[in-house]
Protein backbone atom coordinates (compact mmCIF):
# COMPACT_ATOMS: atom_id res chain seq x y z
CA UNK A 1 0.00 0.00 0.00
CA UNK A 2 0.99 3.63 -0.48
CA UNK A 3 2.22 5.51 2.58
CA UNK A 4 -0.07 8.36 3.65
CA UNK A 5 2.60 10.41 5.42
CA UNK A 6 4.89 10.39 2.36
CA UNK A 7 2.47 12.37 0.17
CA UNK A 8 2.97 16.08 -0.49
CA UNK A 9 -0.10 18.21 0.12
CA UNK A 10 -0.91 18.34 -3.60
CA UNK A 11 -0.52 14.57 -3.90
CA UNK A 12 -2.75 14.09 -0.87
CA UNK A 13 -5.46 16.25 -2.46
CA UNK A 14 -5.41 13.97 -5.49
CA UNK A 15 -5.65 10.91 -3.26
CA UNK A 16 -8.65 12.36 -1.42
CA UNK A 17 -10.40 13.08 -4.70
CA UNK A 18 -9.75 9.51 -5.81
CA UNK A 19 -11.55 8.36 -2.64
CA UNK A 20 -14.50 10.63 -3.42
CA UNK A 21 -13.57 13.14 -0.69
CA UNK A 22 -13.36 16.95 -0.82
CA UNK A 23 -9.83 18.40 -1.31
CA UNK A 24 -9.99 20.31 2.01
CA UNK A 25 -9.80 16.98 3.81
CA UNK A 26 -6.23 16.66 2.53
CA UNK A 27 -5.25 19.89 4.31
CA UNK A 28 -6.80 18.63 7.54
CA UNK A 29 -5.03 15.27 7.34
CA UNK A 30 -1.75 16.90 6.38
CA UNK A 31 -1.88 19.21 9.37
CA UNK A 32 -2.60 16.35 11.75
CA UNK A 33 0.30 14.32 10.38
CA UNK A 34 2.96 16.97 9.90
CA UNK A 35 2.13 19.85 12.22
CA UNK A 36 0.54 18.05 15.17
CA UNK A 37 2.38 14.73 14.60
CA UNK A 38 -0.69 12.61 15.35
CA UNK A 39 0.18 9.04 16.25
CA UNK A 40 -2.96 7.66 14.62
CA UNK A 41 -6.34 8.56 13.18
CA UNK A 42 -8.24 8.51 16.49
CA UNK A 43 -6.43 11.73 17.45
CA UNK A 44 -7.80 13.53 14.37
CA UNK A 45 -10.94 14.99 15.95
CA UNK A 46 -12.21 16.85 12.87
CA UNK A 47 -11.84 13.91 10.46
CA UNK A 48 -14.99 11.80 9.90
CA UNK A 49 -14.69 8.17 10.94
CA UNK A 50 -15.77 7.09 7.46
CA UNK A 51 -12.72 8.83 5.99
CA UNK A 52 -10.29 7.44 8.56
CA UNK A 53 -11.61 3.96 7.80
CA UNK A 54 -10.98 4.55 4.09
CA UNK A 55 -7.45 5.76 4.83
CA UNK A 56 -6.73 2.81 7.09
CA UNK A 57 -7.76 0.39 4.34
CA UNK A 58 -5.97 2.16 1.47
CA UNK A 59 -2.71 3.42 3.03
CA UNK A 60 -0.04 2.61 5.55
CA UNK A 61 0.47 5.15 8.33
CA UNK A 62 4.09 5.23 9.45
CA UNK A 63 4.76 5.95 13.11
CA UNK A 64 8.06 5.12 14.78
CA UNK A 65 8.47 4.34 18.44
CA UNK A 66 11.86 4.07 20.15
CA UNK A 67 12.90 0.62 21.30
CA UNK A 68 15.88 2.08 23.11
CA UNK A 69 16.96 5.56 24.21
CA UNK A 70 20.40 6.38 25.59
CA UNK A 71 21.17 9.75 27.17
CA UNK A 72 24.68 11.10 27.62
CA UNK A 73 25.58 12.03 31.17
CA UNK A 74 28.14 14.43 29.76
CA UNK A 75 26.04 16.68 27.55
CA UNK A 76 22.41 15.49 27.44
CA UNK A 77 22.70 14.10 23.90
CA UNK A 78 20.10 11.40 23.30
CA UNK A 79 20.49 8.51 20.90
CA UNK A 80 17.36 6.75 19.68
CA UNK A 81 16.98 3.30 18.21
CA UNK A 82 13.75 3.02 16.22
CA UNK A 83 12.07 -0.12 14.94
CA UNK A 84 10.58 0.22 11.46
CA UNK A 85 7.30 -1.45 10.42
CA UNK A 86 9.24 -4.35 8.82
CA UNK A 87 11.33 -4.97 11.94
CA UNK A 88 14.49 -3.23 10.72
CA UNK A 89 16.23 -0.75 13.01
CA UNK A 90 17.55 2.78 12.45
CA UNK A 91 19.22 5.34 14.69
CA UNK A 92 18.72 9.05 15.29
CA UNK A 93 20.46 11.50 17.58
CA UNK A 94 19.12 14.54 19.43
CA UNK A 95 21.82 17.11 20.15
CA UNK A 96 21.06 20.11 22.34
CA UNK A 97 22.87 23.36 21.55
CA UNK A 98 22.45 26.90 22.84
CA UNK A 99 21.02 27.92 19.46
CA UNK A 100 18.43 25.11 19.52
CA UNK A 101 17.92 21.37 19.16
CA UNK A 102 19.42 19.50 16.23
CA UNK A 103 18.36 16.02 15.12
CA UNK A 104 20.59 13.77 13.06
CA UNK A 105 18.59 11.17 11.13
CA UNK A 106 19.31 8.05 9.09
CA UNK A 107 18.37 7.78 5.41
CA UNK A 108 18.92 4.04 4.90
CA UNK A 109 18.97 0.82 6.90
CA UNK A 110 22.67 0.12 6.78
CA UNK A 111 24.89 1.43 3.97
CA UNK A 112 26.76 0.06 0.97
CA UNK A 113 29.43 2.74 0.65
CA UNK A 114 32.01 0.79 2.66
CA UNK A 115 33.81 3.69 4.40
CA UNK A 116 36.43 2.04 6.57
CA UNK A 117 35.83 3.96 9.82
CA UNK A 118 32.00 3.76 9.85
CA UNK A 119 29.97 1.17 11.74
CA UNK A 120 26.89 1.76 9.54
CA UNK A 121 28.42 0.00 6.57
CA UNK A 122 29.74 -3.15 8.27
CA UNK A 123 26.69 -5.25 7.37
CA UNK A 124 25.99 -3.57 4.04
CA UNK A 125 22.75 -2.00 2.83
CA UNK A 126 19.44 -3.52 3.88
CA UNK A 127 17.09 -1.03 2.20
CA UNK A 128 16.23 2.64 1.63
CA UNK A 129 13.98 4.59 3.96
CA UNK A 130 10.84 6.16 2.54
CA UNK A 131 10.14 9.87 3.28
CA UNK A 132 7.81 9.20 6.19
CA UNK A 133 10.40 6.96 7.87
CA UNK A 134 12.91 9.79 7.71
CA UNK A 135 10.36 12.36 8.89
CA UNK A 136 9.03 10.34 11.78
CA UNK A 137 12.47 9.99 13.32
CA UNK A 138 12.14 13.74 13.94
CA UNK A 139 8.47 13.63 14.89
CA UNK A 140 9.02 10.77 17.34
CA UNK A 141 11.81 12.71 19.07
CA UNK A 142 9.56 15.77 19.32
CA UNK A 143 6.80 13.60 20.80
CA UNK A 144 9.24 11.97 23.23
CA UNK A 145 10.86 15.18 24.47
CA UNK A 146 8.15 17.78 23.98
CA UNK A 147 10.91 20.03 22.63
CA UNK A 148 11.11 21.91 19.35
CA UNK A 149 13.64 20.91 16.69
CA UNK A 150 15.26 23.74 14.75
CA UNK A 151 17.97 21.95 12.72
CA UNK A 152 18.01 18.64 10.87
CA UNK A 153 21.11 16.79 9.70
CA UNK A 154 20.86 13.84 7.30
CA UNK A 155 24.14 12.35 8.45
CA UNK A 156 23.16 9.18 10.30
CA UNK A 157 23.26 5.66 8.88
CA UNK A 158 23.15 5.46 5.10
CA UNK A 159 24.24 7.55 2.13
CA UNK A 160 21.50 10.12 1.37
CA UNK A 161 22.49 10.47 -2.30
CA UNK A 162 22.02 6.71 -2.68
CA UNK A 163 18.36 7.33 -1.74
CA UNK A 164 18.02 10.51 -3.75
CA UNK A 165 14.32 10.62 -4.73
CA UNK A 166 13.12 9.80 -1.21
CA UNK A 167 15.57 12.36 0.18
CA UNK A 168 14.15 15.15 -1.99
CA UNK A 169 10.58 14.25 -1.03
CA UNK A 170 11.61 14.23 2.63
CA UNK A 171 13.13 17.73 2.34
CA UNK A 172 9.98 18.98 0.59
CA UNK A 173 7.79 17.69 3.42
CA UNK A 174 10.13 18.81 6.20
CA UNK A 175 10.38 22.39 4.94
CA UNK A 176 6.73 22.81 3.87
CA UNK A 177 5.07 25.77 5.61
CA UNK A 178 1.99 23.57 6.15
CA UNK A 179 4.03 21.12 8.21
CA UNK A 180 7.03 21.41 10.51
CA UNK A 181 8.21 24.36 8.38
CA UNK A 182 11.93 24.03 9.06
CA UNK A 183 13.95 26.41 6.89
CA UNK A 184 15.98 24.79 4.12
CA UNK A 185 18.96 26.73 5.48
CA UNK A 186 18.63 24.70 8.68
CA UNK A 187 18.91 21.38 6.84
CA UNK A 188 22.27 19.70 6.17
CA UNK A 189 22.72 16.70 3.88
CA UNK A 190 25.92 14.68 3.96
CA UNK A 191 27.40 12.65 1.13
CA UNK A 192 30.56 10.64 0.62
CA UNK A 193 30.66 12.03 -2.92
CA UNK A 194 28.26 10.49 -5.45
CA UNK A 195 29.12 13.07 -8.08
CA UNK A 196 26.16 12.73 -10.52
CA UNK A 197 23.65 13.07 -7.68
CA UNK A 198 25.53 16.06 -6.26
CA UNK A 199 25.12 17.78 -9.63
CA UNK A 200 21.45 16.81 -9.74
CA UNK A 201 20.99 18.28 -6.27
CA UNK A 202 22.76 21.47 -7.38
CA UNK A 203 20.31 21.79 -10.27
CA UNK A 204 17.40 21.52 -7.81
CA UNK A 205 18.76 24.80 -6.35
CA UNK A 206 17.71 24.14 -2.77
CA UNK A 207 19.09 26.30 0.04
CA UNK A 208 20.26 23.39 2.17
CA UNK A 209 23.86 22.91 3.31
CA UNK A 210 25.79 20.19 1.50
CA UNK A 211 28.40 18.42 3.63
CA UNK A 212 31.05 16.34 1.89
CA UNK A 213 32.61 13.42 3.75
CA UNK A 214 36.15 14.06 2.51
CA UNK A 215 38.53 12.54 5.09
CA UNK A 216 41.60 12.66 2.83
CA UNK A 217 43.14 15.18 0.44
CA UNK A 218 44.82 12.85 -2.06
CA UNK A 219 43.26 10.21 -4.29
CA UNK A 220 45.59 7.53 -2.98
CA UNK A 221 44.79 8.10 0.67
CA UNK A 222 41.07 8.60 0.05
CA UNK A 223 40.88 5.25 -1.73
CA UNK A 224 42.30 3.59 1.38
CA UNK A 225 39.49 5.01 3.50
CA UNK A 226 36.55 5.33 1.12
CA UNK A 227 35.71 2.94 -1.74
CA UNK A 228 33.68 5.69 -3.45
CA UNK A 229 37.05 7.24 -4.37
CA UNK A 230 37.61 4.34 -6.79
CA UNK A 231 34.60 5.57 -8.76
CA UNK A 232 35.00 9.34 -8.57
CA UNK A 233 38.36 11.09 -8.33
CA UNK A 234 39.04 14.07 -6.11
CA UNK A 235 39.14 16.21 -9.25
CA UNK A 236 35.60 15.11 -10.19
CA UNK A 237 34.43 15.61 -6.61
CA UNK A 238 35.85 19.12 -6.36
CA UNK A 239 34.45 20.08 -9.77
CA UNK A 240 30.99 19.06 -8.58
CA UNK A 241 31.48 21.09 -5.37
CA UNK A 242 32.32 24.17 -7.43
CA UNK A 243 29.25 23.51 -9.59
CA UNK A 244 27.08 23.18 -6.48
CA UNK A 245 28.26 26.55 -5.18
CA UNK A 246 27.75 28.21 -8.54
CA UNK A 247 24.19 26.90 -8.83
CA UNK A 248 23.07 27.52 -5.24
CA UNK A 249 25.37 30.14 -3.72
CA UNK A 250 25.62 27.89 -0.67
CA UNK A 251 28.99 27.36 1.01
CA UNK A 252 30.18 23.74 1.06
CA UNK A 253 31.09 22.00 4.32
CA UNK A 254 33.84 19.38 4.28
CA UNK A 255 33.82 16.72 6.99
CA UNK A 256 37.30 15.45 7.80
CA UNK A 257 37.64 12.63 10.35
CA UNK A 258 41.12 12.67 11.83
CA UNK A 259 42.72 9.24 12.23
CA UNK A 260 46.03 9.02 14.07
CA UNK A 261 49.01 8.53 11.74
CA UNK A 262 46.68 8.05 8.76
CA UNK A 263 45.44 11.49 7.66
CA UNK A 264 46.50 13.91 10.41
CA UNK A 265 50.08 14.81 9.42
CA UNK A 266 51.56 18.16 8.35
CA UNK A 267 51.68 16.81 4.81
CA UNK A 268 47.95 15.98 4.95
CA UNK A 269 47.18 19.51 6.11
CA UNK A 270 49.24 20.91 3.23
CA UNK A 271 47.44 18.74 0.67
CA UNK A 272 44.06 19.76 2.10
CA UNK A 273 44.99 23.43 1.91
CA UNK A 274 45.96 23.04 -1.74
CA UNK A 275 42.79 21.08 -2.54
CA UNK A 276 40.46 23.70 -1.07
CA UNK A 277 42.33 26.77 -2.28
CA UNK A 278 39.92 29.42 -3.54
CA UNK A 279 36.76 27.48 -2.68
CA UNK A 280 34.08 29.06 -0.48
CA UNK A 281 33.94 26.35 2.16
CA UNK A 282 34.12 25.36 5.79
CA UNK A 283 36.10 22.42 7.19
CA UNK A 284 34.72 20.45 10.12
CA UNK A 285 37.48 18.43 11.81
CA UNK A 286 36.17 15.32 13.57
CA UNK A 287 38.26 13.22 15.94
CA UNK A 288 37.30 9.79 14.59
CA UNK A 289 34.92 7.68 16.70
CA UNK A 290 36.70 4.36 17.34
CA UNK A 291 34.73 1.19 16.55
CA UNK A 292 35.81 -2.22 17.74
CA UNK A 293 35.65 -3.76 14.25
CA UNK A 294 38.37 -1.44 12.93
CA UNK A 295 41.80 -0.51 14.27
CA UNK A 296 41.58 3.21 13.57
CA UNK A 297 42.62 5.37 16.51
CA UNK A 298 41.60 8.94 17.27
CA UNK A 299 44.24 11.61 16.71
CA UNK A 300 45.74 13.14 19.83
CA UNK A 301 44.32 16.48 20.88
CA UNK A 302 47.49 18.38 20.12
CA UNK A 303 47.59 16.87 16.62
CA UNK A 304 44.00 17.98 16.02
CA UNK A 305 44.80 21.51 17.19
CA UNK A 306 47.96 21.62 15.09
CA UNK A 307 46.02 20.49 12.02
CA UNK A 308 43.41 23.17 12.64
CA UNK A 309 46.04 25.88 13.07
CA UNK A 310 47.74 24.97 9.79
CA UNK A 311 44.48 25.29 7.89
CA UNK A 312 43.60 28.58 9.57
CA UNK A 313 47.00 30.07 8.74
CA UNK A 314 46.23 29.37 5.10
CA UNK A 315 42.90 31.19 5.26
CA UNK A 316 40.59 28.18 5.52
CA UNK A 317 37.51 28.47 7.73
CA UNK A 318 37.75 25.52 10.14
CA UNK A 319 36.25 24.25 13.37
CA UNK A 320 36.71 21.14 15.51
CA UNK A 321 33.42 19.37 15.95
CA UNK A 322 32.28 19.27 19.53
CA UNK A 323 32.24 15.62 20.56
CA UNK A 324 28.74 14.72 21.71
CA UNK A 325 27.36 11.42 22.92
CA UNK A 326 30.72 9.64 23.05
CA UNK A 327 29.59 7.73 26.16
CA UNK A 328 26.46 6.37 24.42
CA UNK A 329 27.76 4.66 21.26
CA UNK A 330 28.00 8.03 19.57
CA UNK A 331 29.19 6.96 16.12
CA UNK A 332 26.72 6.20 13.32
CA UNK A 333 25.57 2.60 13.37
CA UNK A 334 27.01 1.60 16.74
CA UNK A 335 23.78 1.46 18.73
CA UNK A 336 21.96 -0.52 16.02
CA UNK A 337 24.87 -2.93 15.69
CA UNK A 338 25.13 -3.56 19.43
CA UNK A 339 21.39 -4.17 19.62
CA UNK A 340 21.51 -6.61 16.71
CA UNK A 341 24.46 -8.47 18.25
CA UNK A 342 22.65 -8.85 21.56
CA UNK A 343 19.45 -9.99 19.81
CA UNK A 344 21.39 -12.63 17.85
CA UNK A 345 23.06 -13.96 20.99
CA UNK A 346 19.84 -14.15 22.95
Q: Tell me the β content.
A: 15-25%
If you compute it from the alpha carbons, what radius of gyration comes out, rounded to the nearest whole angstrom? 21 Å
Binned, the helix content reads 25-40%
Low-confidence stretches: none
Give a quick account of the main beta sheet: strands, pairing sense, barrel closure.
10 strands, mixed
- How confident is the prediction overall: mean pLDDT? 93
The helix/strand series, from N terminus to C terminus, equals: EHHHEEEEEEEHEHEHEHHEHEHEH
Q: Total number of β-strand segments?
A: 14
The structure class reads alpha/beta
Task: Describe it.
There is one protein chain. The chain has 346 residues and is an alpha/beta fold. It has 11 helices and 14 strands. It has helices at residues 9-18, 24-34, 49-58, 131-145, 164-175, 195-204, 219-225, 234-248, 266-276, 301-313, 334-345; strands at 2-3, 59-60, 65-71, 78-83, 89-97, 100-105, 108-110, 125-128, 151-154, 187-191, 209-213, 252-258, 281-287, 317-320. The protein has a 10-stranded mixed sheet with strand order 3-4-5-6-9-10-11-12-13-14. The chain has a two-stranded parallel ribbon with strand order 1-2. Strands 7-8 form a two-stranded antiparallel sheet. The chain starts with a strand and ends with a helix.
Amino acid sequence: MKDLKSFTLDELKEEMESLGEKPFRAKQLYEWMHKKQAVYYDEMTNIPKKLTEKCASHYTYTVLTPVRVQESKADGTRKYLFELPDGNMVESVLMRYKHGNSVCISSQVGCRMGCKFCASTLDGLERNLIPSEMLDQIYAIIRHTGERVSNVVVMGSGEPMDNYDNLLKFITLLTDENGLNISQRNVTVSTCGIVPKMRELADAQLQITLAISLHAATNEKRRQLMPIADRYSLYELMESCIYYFERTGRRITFEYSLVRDVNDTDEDAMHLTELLDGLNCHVNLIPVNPIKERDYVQSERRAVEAFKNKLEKNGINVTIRREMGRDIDGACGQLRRRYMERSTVS
